[in-house]
């Protein structure tokens, strides 16, 4: 059975998409059958792995409104063991269309049920809000990975996020656990970055991954070539840190 | 009559709050009576100007659900001519509570009507989504300022944002104009930043402000001291660029 990991944080620009793409690619390279699902209408994860949005027929939207079966949504990537369910702007319509549907929080979970036996990991990239799409992802997931940027505002929203997780655990998904907090964009040159990392260690020590992702321009360049960092610049600090994160995840979930 | 400027972009982490706080402060220092309204439940703008969220009685939420008059929401800042309407997490409830209210897109506009004669500029900080809160801000505003980070994904969502603006102009706010696109976090050391800036100049030349905000750690540090950059480090590149943006805005709106 696949381990489904949701990547969420309502604070914007903290590295959700960068983590979703590069963790998925690293898991795939470590021979885990991995599916990356883009749950954001901005579709940055879809573009970041090189998929041309105008050239695809069906996207996540068509699956979660039950127009298309899950298997037909899955497309290939540059890595054999990495598959993608792409997104596009029409996904924005989901929130309004499902508003009166009693099952609206379970739509994504029902779609992924069909795929759970075909993958070892399913990674969900979320938009920067606690909207119906993010709630669907948290309801479908077994665990939640929270990227936190090493900047001042980063810790401010964590309380609200953890309260939302608690509510989802109580009402929609009792088995949802927190996989961990990933510190991202640590700029080793600035005091600010180190101060935020120290604060995170003080308040959330037991939740922090050992891996910290440094600020590394290669991570920003890779999506402009439509490639995960492991294919764009395998020796970069960015690639090595997502590799080490993937190993931490495998030890946590596939471990003996 | 106040010029109401909405700062919006559904892409996360592009510098909306940093621009809202520092543009407001610069306008105030240039003797424009300025009101900063925090329309984001994350309330980063409220924290960034040093307001203790737990110590205030009423926030924007209480105003837009008609519980409190606008004047009672306005609080002082460290700058005489800069006032704030703070936000807090309860603002999240607005979307669901107003869902069936026919006037739901106009709630903020009606609230600000009471204040328009007391200010020269009203600046609205938005969350990273095209949700009801952002639509309220675009409906109340005379113009829209779009911060665009000098990173690859930044230009991807602009098309969707401009389509939303067009729809709002047609249905809710015919006088809404685009004040301009502000390039933010330009890292002069990386090719990526310069490439994105060149692309923005190619596609959106007529909309770009002359001012470009460089990546400058002082802008990231200032909110941790609860101060706009002009009070935290007035000689920094960050302070100078927001000063020059304020002058561009004043020339555009208060000009001869
Ligand atoms: N460690 C890093 N070093 C340098 N740049 C990074 C790093 N991680 C992410 N970036 C860049 O920072 C920007 C924000 O990251 P990303 O888009 O992954 O965040 P996000 O949380 O998915 O944003 P959103 O809230 O809009 O979904 C992107 O342009 C990305 O390329
Ligand atoms: N020019 C800059 N140089 C360095 N850091 C910056 C700059 N502008 C913003 N920042 C920092 O980058 C982070 C993102 O900026 P900010 O929070 O203003 O973006 P936002 O668009 O308001 O995010 P959100 O989408 O979550 O509302 C913040 O930690 C901020 O301090
Ligand atoms: Mg993203
Ligand atoms: Mg903000």
What would the keywords be for this entry?
homodimer; 256 residues; alpha/beta; eight-stranded mixed sheet; 11 helices; 18% strand; binds adenosine-5'-triphosphate; binds magnesium ion
Can you offer a commentary on this structure?
Two copies of one chain form a homodimer. Chain A is an alpha/beta fold. Chain A is built from eleven helices and eight strands. An eight-stranded mixed β-sheet of chain A has the order 3-4-2-5-1-6-7-8, with helices on both faces. In chain A, helix 8 links the parallel strand 7 (177-186) and strand 8 (208-214). The interface between A and B is large, with 37 and 37 residues. Bound molecules: adenosine-5'-triphosphate (2 copies) and magnesium ion (MG) (2 copies). One adenosine-5'-triphosphate (ATP) sits between chains B (12-18, 40, 44, 127-128, 184-185, 213, 215-216, 219-220, 223, 238) and A (11-13, 128, 151-153). One magnesium ion (MG) binds at residues 16-17, 40, 44 of chain B.
SSE layout and pairing:
The structure is a homodimer of 256-residue chains.
Chain A: E1 3-7, H1 16-29, E2 34-38, H2 44-48, H3 60-64, E3 75-76, E4 82-85, H4 93-97, H5 107-113, E5 121-125, H6 132-140, E6 143-149, H7 158-171, E7 177-186, H8 191-204, E8 208-214, H9 217-221, H10 229-232, H11 237-253
Parallel strand pairs in A: 1-5, 1-6, 2-4, 2-5, 6-7, 7-8
Antiparallel strand pairs in A: 3-4
Helix pairs in contact in A: 1-11, 5-6
The structure holds adenosine-5'-triphosphate (2 copies) and magnesium ion (2 copies).
């Amino acid at each position: 059975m696949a381990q489904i990991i949701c990547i969420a944080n309502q604070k914007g620009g903290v590295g959700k998409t960068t983590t979703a793409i590069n963790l998925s690619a690293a898991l795939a390279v470590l021979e885990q059958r991995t599916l990356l699902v883009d749950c954001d209408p901005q579709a940055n994860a879809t573009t970041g792995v090189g998929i041309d949005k105008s050239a695809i027929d069906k996207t996540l939207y068509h699956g979660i409104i039950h127009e298309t079966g899950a298997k037909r949504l899955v497309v290939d990537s540059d890595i054999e063991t990495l598959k993608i369910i792409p997104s596009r702007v029409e996904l924005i319509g989901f929130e309004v269309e499902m508003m009166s549907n009693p099952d609206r929080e379970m739509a994504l979970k029902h779609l992924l049920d069909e795929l759970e036996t075909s993958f070892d990991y399913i990674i969900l990239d979320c938009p920067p809000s606690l909207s119906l799409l993010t709630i669907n992802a948290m309801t479908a997931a077994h665990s939640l990975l929270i990227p936190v940027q090493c900047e001042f505002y980063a810790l401010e929203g964590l309380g609200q996020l953890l309260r939302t997780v608690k509510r989802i655990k109580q009402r929609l998904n009792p088995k949802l656990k927190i996989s961990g907090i990933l510190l991202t964009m640590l700029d080793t040159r600035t005091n600010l970055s180190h101060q935020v990392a120290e604060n995170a260690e003080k308040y959330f020590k037991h939740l922090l991954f050992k891996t910290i992702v440094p600020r590394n321009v290669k991570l920003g360049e890779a999506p402009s070539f439509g490639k995960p960092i492991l294919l764009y610049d395998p020796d970069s600090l960015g690639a090595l840190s997502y590799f080490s994160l993937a190993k931490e995840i495998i030890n946590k979930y596939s471990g003996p």
